[in-house]
């Protein structure tokens, strides 16, 4: 199956940036990558067609759409609208396409939806960014708790329920790094179809979880959070209808930090301050960037002088999102003083460091603590990265550096950002996209 532009085309793409121009202006924020991907899985649970609006035009949504098609669902994507009509339970092909499933992180969540609909599923090991081992034991524990027998071998995982189908269950989705976002959604989708009332303890409260819960609740699933956890009463019929994907808080953070790294401010449409996690707002405020809701819609970033060094830590929502830490490190190369970012969601997430050093950044990793010394006058460089947020960290460094830099790794960028380069150009970035000769 071919997703366009192809991986080969994107791997051969080189982005040249002539840095040193302050970025300012007004641009739209896309629908959230990670919320959309979990809603694609939730849509597989429904008994009537679903239309998702504001889906981002990225590789991961295209891959997930093809995974859904492979299960027998009818899907169409037009201009940010994703329409899906799942196959009847008896006609679902309970196999996640091995190659496609190995490309995205939500494979195991999609598999949970198929298990919930058909009582069985086969899936490859999930993909997504490979910055460190990313365990799925809590997802599999939820499947087992719901009554499935789960077996795994080198090629993938198989889960199968007995003749009684899914039963109500209790599962704990906590991990040594905090509640698992993905496993909370996996458990929630299983519970939405299990017979009886289930309890998910220590649930994640990331927007991916609360938006998927809202999607299910609007479709008739009884679901609520209390001090015990997340309660879900299984439903025999889950209706369809429309739902809008919330704005991408990680893309918003990326644009704010890119602009601030060049001394500029942005006005972002399609998102409000309520969608920005408190930990992110606080970290930006300490660095000298305040965010406000604008009367005309969207949010504005306002830099109150030279950037300042900060000490901060990533963590589960509403703390600073781990998916913004690489971009933050790039921005802090321009801040006055020594900054520290403690990574608390993944034991190591430091794939951006090597590339940032190529620009002359003074950056170190000691265990899970990233140290950045600034302000450094970055020099133009050629650099590549192999995951979404590491690539955006390099783009930020190139925008702040004097002269012409080249960045590679556009497959990873397009996995999560639909129009980032075009938006940066709108803000005044000097960007040329070329392709390496074959
Ligand atoms: C597609 C998507 O939405 N991806 C996001 C999702 O990933 P994802 O859902 O994979 O992240 P999790 O919240 O599950 O993982 C967080 C931490 O828990 C550990 N863990 C997770 C599951 C498990 O069964 N056992 C276990 O130990 C992981 O190794 C990791 O250290 O949340 C991450 C944390 O906010 C984000 O960085 C990703 O962008
Ligand atoms: C790590 C990320 O995504 P994924 O989980 O899809 O790899 C991310 O969005 O930063």
- What's the CATH first level of the largest domain? Alpha Beta
Radius of gyration: 22 Å
How many individual helices? 15
User: What ligands are attached or bound here?
Assistant: uridine-diphosphate-N-acetylglucosamine, phosphoenolpyruvate
Characterize the biggest β-sheet: 4 strands, mixed
Portion of residues in helices? Answer: 25-40%
Judged by helices, strands and strand pairing, the structural class is alpha+beta
| Number of beta-strand segments | 25
Global shape: globular
Can you tell me about this structure?
Belongs to the EPSP synthase family. MurA subfamily. The chain is α+β, with helices and mostly antiparallel strands and 438 residues long. The protein has 2 domains: 7-26 and 248-435, UDP-n-acetylglucosamine1-carboxyvinyl-transferase, Chain, CATH 3.65.10; 34-244, Enolpyruvate transferase domain (UDP-n-acetylglucosamine1-carboxyvinyl-transferase, Chain, Alpha-beta prism). The protein is built from 15 helices and 25 strands. It has helices spanning 7-11, 33-43, 59-70, 98-101, 107-118, 137-145, 181-193, 207-218, 249-261, 278-287, 325-332, 353-358, 388-400, 410-416, 420-426, and strands at 13-19, 25-28, 50-53, 74-78, 81-85, 120-123, 148-152, 157-161, 170-172, 174-175, 178-179, 197-201, 222-226, 229-233, 241-244, 266-269, 289-293, 299-303, 311-313, 337-342, 362-366, 369-374, 382-384, 403-408, 430-435. A 4-stranded mixed β-sheet has the order 23-24-1-25. Helix 2 runs parallel beside helix 3 and helix 6 (137-145) packs parallel to helix 7.
């Amino acid at each position: 199956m071919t997703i366009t532009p192809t991986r080969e085309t994107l791997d051969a793409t080189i982005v040249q940036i002539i840095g040193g121009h302050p970025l300012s202006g007004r641009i739209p924020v896309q629908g959230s990558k990670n919320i959309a991907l979990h809603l694609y899985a939730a849509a597989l649970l429904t008994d009537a067609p679903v239309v998702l609006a504001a889906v981002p035009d990225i590789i991961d949504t295209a891959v997930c759409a093809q995974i859904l098609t492979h299960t027998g669902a009818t899907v169409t994507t037009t201009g940010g609208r994703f329409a899906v009509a799942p196959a009847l339970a008896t006609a679902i092909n309970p196999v996640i396409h091995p190659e496609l499933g190995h490309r995205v992180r939500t494979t195991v969540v999609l598999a949970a939806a198929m298990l919930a609909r058909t009582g069985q599923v086969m899936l490859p090991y999930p993909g997504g960014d490979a910055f460190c081992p990313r365990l799925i034991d809590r997802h599999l524990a939820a499947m087992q708790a719901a009554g499935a027998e789960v077996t795994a071998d080198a090629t993938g995982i198989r889960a199968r329920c007995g003749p009684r189908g899914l039963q109500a269950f209790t599962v704990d989705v906590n991990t040594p790094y905090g509640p698992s976002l993905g496993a909370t959604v996996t458990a929630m989708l299983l519970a939405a179809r299990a017979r009886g009332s289930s309890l998910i303890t220590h649930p994640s409260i990331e927007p991916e979880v609360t938006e998927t819960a809202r999607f299910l609740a609007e479709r008739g699933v009884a679901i609520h959070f209390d001090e015990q956890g997340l309660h879900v009463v299984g439903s025999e019929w889950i209706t369809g209808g429309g739902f809008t994907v919330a704005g991408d808080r990680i893309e918003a953070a990326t644009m704010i930090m890119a602009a601030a790294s060049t001394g500029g401010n942005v006005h972002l449409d399609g998102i409000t301050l309520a969608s920005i996690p408190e930990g992110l707002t606080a970290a930006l405020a300490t660095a000298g960037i305040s965010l406000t809701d604008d009367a005309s819609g969207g949010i504005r970033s306002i830099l109150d002088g030279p950037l300042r060094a900060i000490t901060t830590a990533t963590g589960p929502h509403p703390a600073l999102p781990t998916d913004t830490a690489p971009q933050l490190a790039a921005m802090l190369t321009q801040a006055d003083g020594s900054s520290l970012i403690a990574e608390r969601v993944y034991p190591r997430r430091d794939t951006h460091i090597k590339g940032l050093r190529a620009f002359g950044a003074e950056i170190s990793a000691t265990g899970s603590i990233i140290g950045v010394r600034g302000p450094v006058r970055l020099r133009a460089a050629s650099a590549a990265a192999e995951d979404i947020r590491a690539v955006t960290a390099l783009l930020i460094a190139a925008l702040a550096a004097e002269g012409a830099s080249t960045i590679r790794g556009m497959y990873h960028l397009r996995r999560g950002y639909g129009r980032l380069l075009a938006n940066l150009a709108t803000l005044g970035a000097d960007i040329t996209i070329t392709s390496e000769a074959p």
